[in-house]
Amino acid sequence: MLEIMNKISVIDYGLCNLYNVSNALNHLKAKVEIIENPRDVSNATHLILPGVGAFKNGMRGLKIRNLIEPIKEHIDKNKPFLGICLGMQMMLSKSYEFDEIEGLNIIDGDVVKIPQINDKGQTHKIPHIGWNRIIYKDDRITHGQNKKSSMYFVHSYKAECNNPKNILAHTLYNNIEISAIINSKNAYGCQFHPEKSGKYGLRLLNEFIKL
Amino acid sequence: MTSNVRLIARLDIKGPNLIKGIHLEGLRIIGDPNIFARKYYDAGVDEIIYMDTVASLYGRNNLSDIVKKTVKDVYVPITVGGGIRSIDDVKYLLRCGAEKVAINTAATKNPGLIKEVSRKFGSQCMVLSIEAKRKENSWEVYTENGRQKTGLDVMDWVRIGEDNEAGEILLTSVDNEGTKKGFDYELIKKVSESVSIPVIASGGMGEYDHLNEVVKESCADAVAMADILHYERSTIQEIREYCIKSNINVRDYE
User: Pairing mode, if any, of strands A176-184 and A187-190?
Assistant: First the structure.
């Protein structure tokens, strides 16, 4: 019997790191389409919102393409959604990068700068770049991960959820807790880059494809 | 130590070939870069750097085909450097699958390019590449694989780079590169302590002790390795095991 793979729709809103995400999805044998208009977002079954760079530019990119409402509707209908890096941060209520800017408000919380110093008075480099071990809660999307699975992070800001229930996985950067995966129903967001995190990252993307 | 040290394979490229020189010159052909990149990925390398060593001859970076092929089966970040001069060059290489770009010459001519790239694509993708050569009590910034002086002092230049929002610094010691005698520890320590962005130490890795010293004494955030890997004097797995034994934090890999 032929297995029917879900089609994954990757949102293009002008920040151009779509290649590596769609390349990884292709590698996993998913059908991938790059979309940028509201109608395609409304028709999608699985949405991925990637992104790097500044929160303000990201939200502006979504707004001028009229993508904010269809993304929210998609999530309200409980259809699978994955935000990656900036795409994850935009799921929160607001960000304090440069000015206070409203996010998609899918998960209650803020995006704040990673503190330059931890509670023991130790400093560290920002941006946080590198591979970190993840501490997971059980979920469909974390299926197949283990204590040794590390993911690749690169960010200067972090997501702070007001409700701990929204945090599905976290990591520690110099003893500072960083939300690694956030979640509300079928909407997921990961701070790390699964498309650049070797086999464990690919495994996570594969679980998303199967949702 | 604040985070996991990144173990990076640096592949210098000439035309279609992986090459290796000494002091960034006197190049010897080693093989097909894609095969080496794939081997390092399978062994658990954290990142890969591709550097086009002849880009200045042609006036542009020629690694797009190699990058496109690599990303088909290598799923760790790839940094591409050599001959990158404009926003359009960066955009093209990112479209080919690069995660970051390393810029040296064009940045020394126009430091504003660093900020432009950073603002447009995010600072995470803007790596300031510095070729440093020792003078009496300081270091000078060089370009063109250590052949061209710029008159810039390395310590001044890294601060300019950071002010212009570079995301990290790839710091290559021209004096030590290819010598297997160890890193320029003093240079790396000085730079690492004077900036708050990550510093990748490059040039001189010959044996395990060098790694220990550059991380513990010079506070490197990442280590770029070339001929120790290319000539199979060691492997990524062995280097990772050494790190774990020596209490250097590296990512788990199995």
Answer: antiparallel
Residues of B with Cβ-Cβ distance to A14 under 8 angstroms: none
What does the pLDDT read at residue A3?
57
Domain containing A16 — which CATH number? 3.40.50.880
Domain contains A2 = no
| Six token digits for residue A1 | 């019997």
CB distance from A14 to chain B under 8 Å? Answer: no
Residue A124 exposure: Cα atoms within 13 Å on the Cβ side: 24
- Is residue A1, in this structure, part of any structural domain at all? no
Closest alpha carbon within chain A to B253: A148
Average pLDDT value for residue range B71-76: 96
pLDDT one-digit tens code per residue, B96-116: 999 999 999 999 999 999 999
Q: Is A16 a domain residue?
A: yes
Domain ranges of chain B: 6-245
> Which residues neighbour A73 within 8 Å (Cβ) at sequence distance 6 or greater?
A42
pLDDT at B92: 92
pLDDT, averaged per 10 consecutive residues of chain A (211 residues), comes to 76 82 94 96 97 87 97 98 96 90 97 93 91 94 91 95 98 95 97 96 96 94
The answer to whether residue A63 is domain-embedded is yes
DSSP-assigned states of every residue in B130-177: EEEEE-SSSEEEEETTTTEEEEEEHHHHHHHHHHTT-SEEEEEETTTT
Give me the residue from A15, A116, A148 closest to B254, CB to CB. A148
pLDDT, position B25: 80
- The tally of domains found in chain A comes to 1
Residue A31 domain boundaries: 7-210
Q: Considering CB atoms only, which of A129, A131, A150 is closest to B124?
A: A129
Global ipTM: 0.92
Q: Looking at beta carbons, which residues of chain A come within 8 Å of B4? A: 130-132, 150
Catalytic residue among A46, A155, A170, A193: A193
pLDDT in tens, B137-165: 999 999 988 999 999 999 999 999 999 99
Whether residue B20 contacts residue B178, with contact meaning beta carbons closer than 8 Å, is answered with yes
Residue with tokens 């240079």: B187
Residue B1 has pLDDT above 60, yes or no: no
Which CATH number is associated with domain B6-245?
A: 3.20.20.70
